[in-house]
Specification:
The complex is a heterodimer.
Chain A: E1 3-8, H1 12-23, E2 28-34, H2 37-47, E3 51-55, H3 63-70, E4 77-82, H4 88-93, E5 98-101, H5 106-119
Parallel strand pairs in A: 1-2, 1-3, 3-4, 4-5
Chain B: H1 2-36, H2 43-67, H3 75-105, H4 111-171, H5 174-190, H6 192-209, E1 217-219, H7 220-238, E2 242-248, E3 256-258, H8 263-272, E4 281-290, E5 293-300, H9 307-312, H10 318-330, E6 335-340, E7 346-353
Classes of the chains: A alpha/beta, B alpha+beta.
């Protein structure tokens, strides 16, 4: 079974960057994109993705607010995507599996994705541990 | 302000010094005149005499000379005025002298003789004193104006630097900079020309904000070019969400505007509009003539001035600096403010004197 991923960013080119990286992975399907926090909350509740790429700075409801609105226990595995590295600590506090900085580099993205796959139950790659 | 109080203090001290000097010089002159003829009273007597005449006249002359300066612009009116005034004042001075002399010396001269006596003794020197006072006041004013001009131009320079810094700060703000670079890296794979465009625009914007030419004013046309760099980047980043409308009347395109004056306003309109509210927004820039003024408006359609944000007119030093620069450049011949639009949206509006040549750094008209 492939991983179902949701991409949340208020800028279309930010979403497309993630889509492009994910396109190279056969085991990951992008089930949707959201351009703001509110629709992200809805999509997470209704469509229950396994993995979410969550932009921090968005209008009206930012990434952290999305997380607290959905509730930590209901949140899929989360990778924060942000232009600010000052959000890094907060991202880990919020139980994110990883965070990546914009502009996103290929290697850093792969590392975050690998981490996420380890976290996902039933994933075939979850047996290997790369601390 | 502290320095203007200091100026007033210094001004008063100078006035007092000038007054004492004139009184003293006249007392000495009379004393020497009489002493040379072997007919001198004690010096005290001349000092008192001088106090009664030039002691009274000096402040009058100085005040008059200060408020009616003879300059390259005003001399046609001021010169005859001072010529007349100098004769009137000297005549009254000689009359006071004659009167005092009669009262004090109890000599047996008739009024006419006393007047003639004092007129021949003192008129030329008094006339000379009048014009020397006028000259001294003029010199003082010129120095004072030069000092003020210098102060003003250094203030303007500081505000321009602040404006450049503000633009630079906005450019290297992580949210703008890294999202722009993210956009460029993504476009590289889909649309290399688009990626090139966004990077060239970013470079050009950075170049403008680290520019060291210290040009205070640029033609509106040039300011619009800089704006276009910024708007082009934002339009690519936000795609369909953000629309720009620029409508500048042809007859104001060569008008001079303060360099980088619109940039912070556009940035504000985007940050408080599309940056805070989801959905799409239209940011418009309008420029047109209104009587003797150039009016510029930057508005968005979905933000709102709350009491909270109206207090600071948007966060940061951007708009405070905008206000300070406009005041420094155009005195009270300018207007700047933000207002809410109906049903939503905020308009930043400014009016500056309509001119198609750069402003000379002079005292703003009050």
């Amino acid at each position: 079974m492939s991983i179902r991923a949701l991409v949340v960013d208020d800028e279309p080119l930010g979403r497309r960057a993630i889509r492009r990286f994910l396109g190279k992975h056969v085991g990951v399907d992008v089930i949707g994109e959201c351009g703001d926090g509110e629709s992200a909350v809805r999509a997470i509740r209704e469509r229950k993705p396994d993995l979410v790429f969550l932009d921090v700075q968005m209008p009206e409801m930012d990434g952290f607010q999305v997380l607290s609105e959905v509730g930590a226990s209901e949140m899929p595995v989360t990778i924060f995507v942000t232009a600010h590295d000052r959000y890094a600590l907060r991202a880990f506090d919020a139980n994110a599996i990883d965070y990546v900085l914009k502009p996103i580099g290929k290697e850093r993205f792969e590392r975050a994705l690998t981490r996420a796959k380890h976290e996902l139950p039933g994933s075939s790659t979850a047996t290997r541990c790369t601390g | 302000m502290a320095h203007s109080q200091l100026d007033v203090g210094r001004h008063k001290a100078l006035l007092l010094a000038a007054w004492l000097a004139v009184v003293f010089v006249f007392a000495v002159q009379w004393f020497v005149y009489d002493a040379a003829r072997g007919d001198a009273d004690p010096f005290r007597y001349y000092l008192w005499w001088s106090c009664y005449t030039w002691g009274v006249l000096t402040p009058v002359v100085v005040t008059f000379a200060y408020h009616k300066p003879i300059s390259g612009v005003t001399w046609k009116r001021a010169l005859p005025l001072h010529l007349g005034a100098s004769f009137v004042l000297v005549a009254s001075e000689v009359s006071i002298e004659a009167m005092l002399g009669t009262l004090r010396l109890h000599h047996d001269l008739s009024v006419q003789e006393a007047l003639r006596h004092y007129f021949t003794r003192h008129a030329q020197v008094s006339l000379l004193a009048y014009w020397m006072l006028v000259g001294a006041v003029r010199l003082y004013r010129m120095r004072d104006e030069a000092h003020r001009r210098e102060l003003r131009s250094s203030k303007l320079e500081a505000e321009l630097s602040a404006a450049q810094l503000e633009v630079l700060r906005a450019q290297i703000h992580p949210h703008f900079l890294f999202n722009t670079l993210q956009a460029a890296t993504t476009l590289m794979h889909e649309d290399p020309d688009g990626a090139e465009d966004i990077l060239l625009r970013l470079s050009e914007l950075l170049r403008v904000s680290v520019d060291e030419s210290h040009i205070q004013e640029v033609p509106l046309e040039r300011e619009l070019e800089v704006l276009d760099l910024y708007m082009g980047i934002q339009a690519r980043r936000f795609g369909d969400r953000l629309r720009f409308e620029v409508s500048i009347d042809q007859n104001v395109r060569d008008c001079m505007v303060p360099a980088l004056i619109l940039q912070p306003l556009i940035e504000n309109a985007i940050r408080h509009g599309i940056g805070r509210y989801k959905g799409s927004d239209t940011v418009s820039v309008r420029g047109f003539r209104e009587g003797e003024f150039l009016r510029l408006e930057v508005r968005n359609l979905n933000s709102r001035l709350e009491d909270k944000s109206a207090r600071s007119l948007g966060p940061g030093v951007g708009l405070a600096n905008t206000r300070a620069r406009l005041e420094q450049l155009y005195g009270n011949r300018q207007e700047f403010g933000l207002r809410n639009l109906e049903p939503t949206g905020v308009s930043a509006e400014l009016s500056i004197p309509l001119r198609s040549a750069p402003v000379l750094i002079e005292e703003p008209s009050r």
